[in-house]
Design a protein that fits this description.
Chain lengths: 244, 88, 200
């Protein structure tokens, strides 16, 4: 990995919402206009800060979903039951609303275009968001996405994944709660058996990025190591308790 | 909900660490003062309570504590013997 | 001047002002916040000790602790992360009971816990009916995620002083900053004077 660039002291910038569009019943992509945005790399995230009229503040982190596009930053946000910030972003916020953004941040869980081997992306629920940013700029690198969602309706970016699959991108979706009639895909949790079947084998030394709810990430990381993958090639980003 | 479901990793501190140190820190390699194991800050365990507590993924020793109060930040990094990072 | 996010309120609930210290918001939840992994000390290994500036070490095994008289109290709790929870009910042994008969010149105490957490308080904030070692919450044995089998309960101070997984008190001549007090949090921590951080 090339040395991390020193960007200087990182502070909060003002961002305004350009667009909010649905991905699934519980998930929306929020496009933000951020004047002066320095650009970002796939896998990085941002910290978002909201201030209410009486000064009350809340802060959350969200992964960037897409490559940089002229100062516009896209976040894909899942509405958390009884959440504080995600219900605001997914149900209340509209074009023109302002918030504060700090970033981009991250260097460990970041796409490495120099890596001389296949890439394995394993995502649970909204954990697919930073992985999608990676897929959207992967170029010719052989990539396998293993994506666990509860139902077909919960698969974020479904149309796009169907479109881009093939030609060096393998997309494996497993639906763990209910499957539609005629579903020929997987329905088990992402475990060692599933990974042994669909992921590049340890001998190929894939670089793995695992993202999603904490229990998901820890189970998958353990399974990869049990299968013989080098722990140093398994990068993890835990999102906490919510999700699949 | 158990604490183990809530635990995060060093990636969740990327923003505050960058703000404090003026550089991307999740790729920095830290050495645990308690057990000598080293690894990237992005891969350490992170607990959120009255502040952020970064713990060694091998022995659970406290590596760093970070408390923020508006524009003041307190950082205790006694648990990290060494940090190695690339600058420039 | 930070931008106001139109329409953002958070999850706050209204509550009588005399029950809610400045800067706090009432929550119906009981957030699980932890500085580290939940310890799982087997009960036969558990004890509570009073050490430090005392004539001799005082120790209770779990059985001996269970045999002590308890009190049931309903109190409001205030976390420095800004949530407050009203009317929480606990059952525990008053610290007065534990200190009964113990002679000391100490003016302070440090609570120490499984997992290594510590917090410091003036001894007078642990006595005269202000503090308990609680093992029951809302009528049920205290859940490990909330500090069980027993935690310190000192509701008149910010809740970081109500140390989870408490195993004893070390009585000290001076005020020795604990886990959070040594890194920015106020040595005393009175929510009604909003003593959150150093310098407050």
């Amino acid at each position: 990995m090339a040395g991390a660039a020193v960007l200087g002291r990182l502070g909060w910038r003002v961002a305004s919402i350009a667009d909010v569009r649905p991905e699934t019943p519980r998930v929306k992509t929020i496009a933000l206009d951020v004047p002066g945005w320095p650009g970002h790399r796939a896998g990085q995230h941002v910290d978002i800060r909201l201030t209410a009229e009486d000064g009350y503040r809340a802060e959350r982190s969200y992964s960037i979903a897409a490559p940089e596009d002229g100062g516009r930053v896209e976040l894909t946000v899942e509405e958390v039951d009884d959440g504080e910030v995600s219900p605001y972003l997914t149900a209340e916020a509209r074009a023109g609303d302002e918030l504060e953004i700090r970033g981009p941040v991250g260097g460990y869980f970041v796409w490495d275009s120099d890596y001389p081997g296949p890439i394995l992306l394993v995502g649970g629920g909204s954990g697919v968001v930073p992985l999608m940013a990676m897929i959207r700029q992967r170029g010719a690198i052989h990539t396998t996405l293993v994506y666990s969602a509860r139902t077909l309706e919960d698969v974020i970016y479904r149309d796009e994944l169907e479109r881009v699959a093939g030609g060096g991108l393998d997309v494996v979706v497993t639906l763990t709660r209910t499957q539609p009639d005629g579903w020929t895909g997987h329905s088990r949790r992402v475990d060692a058996d599933l990974l042994a079947e669909v992921a590049p084998p340890p001998e190929q030394r894939p670089l793995a990025f695992v993202c999603g709810p904490t229990p998901f990430v820890e189970a998958v990381a353990l399974a990869l190591v049990d299968l013989g993958h080098d722990p140093g090639l398994v990068k993890t980003e835990r999102f906490g308790p919510t999700g699949t | 909900m158990t604490v183990s479901d809530l635990v995060l990793d060093g990636n969740a501190a990327a923003g505050i660490l960058h703000a404090v140190y003026g550089a991307e820190m999740t790729l920095a390699v830290g050495t645990c003062d308690a057990c000598d194991t080293d690894g990237p800050v992005g891969a350490v365990r992170l607990y959120r309570s009255a502040g952020l507590v970064l713990r060694c993924p091998h022995c659970d020793a406290v590596l760093m504590k970070i408390v923020t109060a508006g524009e003041r930040v307190w950082v205790d990094s006694r648990g990290l013997r060494t940090l190695e990072l690339a600058v420039g | 001047m930070p931008p106001i996010s139109r329409g953002f309120r958070g999850k706050r609930r209204d509550a009588p002002a005399d029950r809610v210290p400045p800067g706090q918001y009432v929550t119906p939840d009981f957030p699980v916040l932890s500085a580290g992994p939940t310890p799982h000390r087997p009960i036969q290994e558990w004890d509570f000790t009073i050490v430090g500036e005392v004539d001799e070490l005082h120790r209770w095994s779990w059985d001996a602790f269970q045999a002590l008289p308890t009190e049931t109290v309903t109190v409001d709790i205030h976390c420095v992360t800004r949530w407050s929870k009203l009317d929480t009910t606990w059952e525990g042994v008053s610290v007065d009971t534990l200190l009964d008969g113990i002679e000391t010149e100490a003016e302070y105490a440090t609570a120490f816990c499984d997992g290594g957490y510590t917090t410091n308080l003036p001894l007078e904030d642990l006595t005269d009916g202000k503090a308990w070692v609680a093992n029951t919450y809302e009528g049920e044995p205290l859940d490990p995620e909330h500090g069980g089998p027993a935690r310190l309960l000192v509701p008149h101070l910010y809740f970081w002083k109500s140390a989870k997984w408490v195993r004893g008190l070390r009585l000290t001549a001076t005020d020795e900053p604990g886990f959070w007090e040594s890194n920015g949090y106020h040595l005393y921590g009175d929510p009604w004077r909003e003593q959150r951080y150093w310098g407050d």
